[in-house]
Amino acid sequence: MANEEAEKKKNTTSSEAKQPLKTAKKKALGWMEWLRGWFYLVYEMIFQRILASHLQNPMPLPPINDLTCIVTGSTSGIGREIARQLAEAGAHVVMAVRSTNRAQELVRQWQEEWSGKGLPLNIEVMELDLLSLDSVARFAEAWNARMAPVHVLINNAGIFSIGEPQKFSKDGYEEHMQVNHLAPAMLSILLLPSLIRGSPSRIINVNSTMHYVGFVDPEDMNVVSGKRKYTSVVGYGGSKLAQIMFSSILHKRLPAESGISVVCNTPGIVLTNVARDLPQFLQVGYRLIPYFIFNAEEGSRSTLFAATDPQISEYCEMLKADDWPVCAYISHDCRPTNASEEAHNIETSYKVWEKTLELVGLPSDAVERLIEGEEIKCRYGNSQE
Ligand SMILES: NC(=O)c1ccc[n+]([C@@H]2O[C@H](COP(=O)([O-])OP(=O)(O)OC[C@H]3O[C@@H](n4cnc5c(N)ncnc54)[C@H](OP(=O)(O)O)[C@@H]3O)[C@@H](O)[C@H]2O)c1
């Protein structure tokens, strides 16, 4: 622990030296950062198809018969494509979903479509509701009890309740923050024993270019203090930035010997159910611009690339060796790219890391203890529903 603290201090200090103006006292994104963020979003929207024109669709996958991949939110949109394509490439796919009936129906349909093309698809369905931290803990307990490996965990499930008023989960957290960041972060930590068993393994977080317009105040992760006005963009952008910040520290804390790579990626702007909360007239507009917007198959490529490309682990190790402040970030056109300027604020990233572990009821040294093979206690998971 002393070494870790020294390492943490070293990282923080070197970052402060490099970026003296970025302190945790910052209250919001600067105007220039905010404008640059929106510029990136518009740029992605207009040029994503051109930038990704070198990619095949569907993306050819390497042989993955020996991989077990957990995909959250695989009943719809990008996650549905990811699960189907991984299964068709031979992987054992676990659909971690809140609607198990819908997932079973999809599996039945995919098996039918696949029939005659190869061995039956190896897919199973497990219940996971990210709006309940009890459900996350129960999922991890059930999986870890099998003593089976996980090679790829894809934290795909997400919400963007556009224009909706602020809502809170029964755990008391703002819903974007819980579904898009807190619950996947908790799942990643709790599944570490299985990811170690599957090493070399990967945690892939389906993130978003919207993190460029996001800001996280670690003292006010749920945007309740009144210091900032809540909008769905504040909720969504903040949750995606928090995910990158947490992932960056997880990436640093996992020793190279663990063989676990942590990656965030952006799928591009994709026509899925994510826009279900848009007003009707905007939904029509959204569907009228298919030339610019990826379909779900195109939108699944950066995640599938991050999950299966053989060079990803090497790239992550290189970032770690260089003491780069942010974990690997893969763009919609499957190229390593840079996360936002704010994501490089390592002092805030450490605070987000600590606050996240506190909010999900895990000890601050959870990673180190799990790596050592110790069991850890979690505040959630024992209550009956
Ligand atoms: N579409 C885009 O343009 C875009 C751009 C950037 C990033 N992303 C990210 O891509 C990811 C996938 O989004 P999508 O576009 O494919 O949206 P989608 O079609 O709405 O799919 C979201 C999935 O997440 C699941 N989910 C939502 N709340 C959940 C909960 N409480 N517990 C468990 N699962 C839950 C949904 O399950 P149900 O079917 O049961 O609702 C669904 O399967 C998200 O993380 C999103 O932020 C999307």
Automatic annotation (TrEMBL):
Keywords: Oxidoreductase. Pfam families: adh_short (PF00106). Coiled coil: none annotated. It comes from Solanum tuberosum. It comes from the Eukaryota. The lineage of its organism: Eukaryota, Viridiplantae, Streptophyta, Embryophyta, Tracheophyta. This is Short-chain dehydrogenase. Residues 1-10 have a biased composition (Basic and acidic residues). SUPFAM superfamilies: NAD(P)-binding Rossmann-fold domains. PANTHER family: DEHYDROGENASE_REDUCTASE SDR FAMILY MEMBER FEY, RETINOL DEHYDROGENASE. Residues 1-22 are annotated as: Disordered. The keyword Amino-acid biosynthesis does not apply. Belongs to the short-chain dehydrogenases/reductases (SDR) family.
